[in-house]
Amino acid sequence: FPLALQVKNKAPAEVQITAEQLLREAKERELELLPPPPQQKITDVEELNDYKLRKRKTFEDNIRKNRTVISNWIKYAQWEESLKEIQRARSIYERALDVDYRNVTLWLKYAEMEMKNRQVNHARNIWDRAITTLPRVNQFWYKYTYMEEMLGNVAGSRQVFERWMEWQPEEQAWHSYINFELRYKEVDRARSIYERYILFTVLVLVHPDVKNWIKYARFEEKHSYFAHARKVYERAVEFFGEEHMDEHLYVAFAKFEENQKEFERVRVIYKYALDRIPKQDAQNLFKNYTIFEKKFGDRRGIEDIIVSKRRFQYEEEVKANPHNYDAWFDYLRLVESDADAEAVREVYERAIANVPPIQEKRHWKRYIYLWINYALYEELEAKASKRTRQVYQACLELLPHKKFTFAKMWLLYAQFEIRQKNLPLARRALGTSIGKCPKNKLFKGYIELELQLREFDRCRKLYEKFLEFAPENCTSWIKFAELETILGDIDRARAIYELAIGQPRLDMPEVLWKSYIDFEIEQEEYEKTRNLYRRLLQRTQHVKVWISFAQFELSAGREERLPRCRQIYEEANKAMRSCEEKEERVMLLESWRSFEDEFGTDATKERIDKLMPEKIKKRRKLQAEDGSDAGWEEYYDYIFPEDTANQPNLKLLAMAKLWKKQQQESEAAAVDPDKDIDESQT
């Protein structure tokens, strides 16, 4: 190669050109270079025939190359039609139909050509052939009937419609036929077509549409045949029955009756539909019923529809969660306020059927109130004592008494039987409850019942059983002793108290001891009361016991009451010296000082003042949970003069105060030596 042809710069160009760009550019330039076709002017018949021959040859070549492309046939026929060669155009269309007789466009173009050229019989012939060949193409029927109607051939158009109806077409075809008859005021013929169409939907269609019945009824209403319209609605309701109810049918029926001012009929229709249609499918029905009641109803009717809406909401809630007992309570409250007894019982039965799946008492606490409300409804509202008893018994049989029970149910059942004057059944129920599942509440309720009946021997036996079951229950011991006290058996009451305080375990021993002491004070057995206090102090050295003991001696009402009371305070003070709780000791001394202020002499008052502690502020170190230093806190402590261990600290504190006083006096003297210093200020 010569040097001039060698590429010196082999780096890529800045603008890259793809093969696609090259091909597109070549195609565009090819179109630009294509010369426009020459304009040919035909001046005589020979040139025209030559032109026709060349065009026909072109069309024939295209058809021969691809016979199945129908657009080539249509273009060929339309070109011949433009030359007014109708016979040749017909021939082309016929040849095309031989190729593809199922092509809808081909038939339409063929028939439109005949109609355009006013060849009516030829057009009829084509439409007849089309509907015979392709009877399911609705467009052929529409065009054919429209052509006959435009020609004024009403009978011919009706005949075509009848032929079409024999093929059982879709809904729109029937309505077209009906509208055709209505355009010529043939109401009876339109009614007969409606009847045929309804019969067709009933016999042929598996799921007929309700809108056809509504259209039929509105047709009758529009032409003032109100009885016929009502009959159509009634037939529709009967035909669809309760299995295939549709809210649109009932809304239309109700609006028809509303237009006829039949308000009671409207109300009956709405209520009938609302009672039978599923609630989730009746939203529009609810809405229209509400509007109707607001327009024509009274207050009671509006309340009924509101209740129906709320009932629907509650039904949805309990369907979503059957164990939502709060929803059941609200639903039952609504039903009880506006329903008959059978409807209320039905809802109660549905509610109590939702037993909690887990046998744990916390899951049953809301559920049990369904039974209670059911029983109370039967007794108080329905006045059915027999059903009330059955409700209580069914509930008690359902409860798993070996795991837990509800004393409330047993007691309510017993009280119900007492109201029915059936005492043996009440006692039997309570006895069964104590035997199956003894509880404090059951014993208390049974004892209270027998007390009201004045059956004291039964009360004694029940208290004995109760105390065998729960010997640590101080309240039971106290109530038992109070019963014996009321009955006048003091020795028996005292023996019960003695048994009670002798129990190894008690839930509230202080209450029991106080009750025993109060009992002895009421009986004026002061020596026994003192012995009780002494026995109690052997068990506990609580400051309140000492104070109570001293107040008892003060209230004994004898001459030696003051020395006895002071002696008790002395003993208490000695006993409390070893007590770690200094606040209790301060409480005792304050009580003692109150006593001396009221009954003591100056000497005793001075003595008690010397025993009072000194309140000082201290600091102590705090520690966090992890053991780290959490800072300091201030607290108050008491320094008792009697505590010999604290005497050095007291002396040190007194000397510190004296030194501070001397320092302040010296500083004041240095500032103003002639000024007296007030001791109270220093």
Automatic annotation (TrEMBL):
Residues 71-361, 381-534 form the Pre-mRNA-splicing factor Syf1/CRNKL1-like C-terminal HAT-repeats domain. The keyword Repeat applies. The keyword ATP-binding does not apply. It holds the Pfam family HAT_Syf1_CNRKL1_C. GO terms for cellular component: nuclear speck; post-mRNA release spliceosomal complex; precatalytic spliceosome; Prp19 complex; U2-type catalytic step 2 spliceosome. This is Crooked neck-like protein 1. The gene is Crnkl1. Keywords: mRNA processing, mRNA splicing, Nucleus, Phosphoprotein, Repeat, Spliceosome. It comes from Dryoscopus gambensis. It is found in: Nucleus speckle. Involved in pre-mRNA splicing process. As a component of the minor spliceosome, involved in the splicing of U12-type introns in pre-mRNAs.
